[in-house]
Amino acid sequence: MRATAVRRTALAASAACLALLATACGGSDSGDKGASAAPGSKDDAGKGKSAIKALTTAELEKASLEQGDVDGYKISRTGPEDIASPEAVTVDKKECEPVGFAFYGVKRGTPVGNAGRKVVEEPKKKKTAPGDLKDAMTGALDMTSSLVTLASYDGDGAEKNLAELRESAAACATGGFGLSMKDTKQTITSITEEKVTGGDEAVAWRVQMGKGESAVPFKLVALRKGGTVATFFSFNLGATGEKSDFDKPTAVIDAQAGKLG
Question: Do residues 63 and 55 make contact, with C-beta atoms less than 8 angstroms apart?
């Protein structure tokens, strides 16, 4: 895949705002129907989850990254062109939709608030031998760019959001699936889980698009803090090929987790 095609595909994508169907709550013991639920019981815990109030879009904007929050990165707000509508994206396997939609920022469910940022690493200054054009070009491309989205949900919607993403990634880790947006068609060939920390819970994967020398790795990270889900979709134009990889933008992830409290 040509670098320009990779750049166009990745810049058009962002992390998904996912939601799950509600799960049934456990009932109280039939022998004690009139008694109040004890602290820490399932009913009490359920009330706690229901009490979570989603942040508004205005509140999420205040909690989003701004220029100067992460050294070495340029940060700007996303626009309508960065987020795709559900009708514009097609995933050929239903179970892979959450991961596939994450590539294009498609909203799922009914988040109360949304916010987004484009976070681009500044070019690294790399010393190269005079006339070494290949090394110079490699250094110029070796920078990680991320689309960061925040979505807030009432109740336990945020927990279900991450649960659905986990299930989708596990179901689609091998075998591959196709996805397309407008005239651009791509094939995801593998999904590999990675370690990540942040917020109340977090998940991360290396997602590979294509095969052989044309393969391109992406990083997909999602973390939850209370009723808010932050999703990071990252790529590095200097990494191509099945054996290539790049580091997750840990500084970006940590800074956003910190602003969520």
Answer: yes
